[in-house]
Amino acid sequence: MTTPVLRRTLTTSAAAAGSAVLLLAAAAGASAHVGVTPDKTDAGSYALLTFGIPHGCDTSPTTKVAITLPPELNDAQPTVNPNWTAEKVTEQFTEPRKLSDGSSITKRTSQIVYTAKTPLSPELRDALVLSVHLPDSAGATLHFPTLQTCESGQTDWSQVAADGQDPHDLKAPAPSITLTAAATGDAHGAGAAHVTGQAAAVTDTGAGARSWTGLAAGVGGLVLGGAALLRTRGGRRAPAGDAATGNQ
């Protein structure tokens, strides 16, 4: 007969295992697209944007990734990645563009092109990090059309959802972020804090895989613990039965 403690243990194990399966499936689906994860979205602040690069051309290795900056951005600083070379592509304005500090510019960085030193296997993923100064436009959504070139074929991650359309319905959505209201205090942040944030973003590129591994190990531990408890309970019932029949 199953005891209340054993029932609770087995129920907890089953629930955790089910949750892990759903979370792992969701993570696998999300990793199929080129996405962007900002370390902050405060309007007017400096942010680190981490672009996750999964397979994009079926089984063909990735050789180049071109990230187009939205017109609201004037520049982006690529973080060094030993697997890629990075190049800035600029565009010239027909007329100078005035900045908020009163100065003006005649050109801007329109695209960052990464070229793989060794083609990225479709079985692996990588992360490319850009440092940008976000515009002071809370509520605005910035899109970063990204062209992923492979040894065979290309995937153009540039689709933008129309009004009322669910972005999840798009086959090749452009990576995007939505700006939030500026935080109180200094929105730009100190230089030392900026460097620390950059290091954290680069170091965290493999944290997702480690967290899923830890989750799977935890679920396995719960299941094994439930099985051990079941064996223990089963082993303790025999002496109780002997006592009931007078055999002590």
UniProtKB/TrEMBL annotation:
Residues 1-32 form the signal peptide. It comes from the Bacteria. Gene3D superfamilies: Uncharacterised protein YcnI-like PF07987, DUF1775. InterPro entries: TAT_signal, YcnI-copper_dom, YcnI-like_sf. Keywords: Signal. Residues 33-179 form the YncI copper-binding domain. This is Uncharacterized protein YcnI. It comes from Pseudarthrobacter defluvii. The lineage of its organism: Bacteria, Bacillati, Actinomycetota, Actinomycetes, Micrococcales.
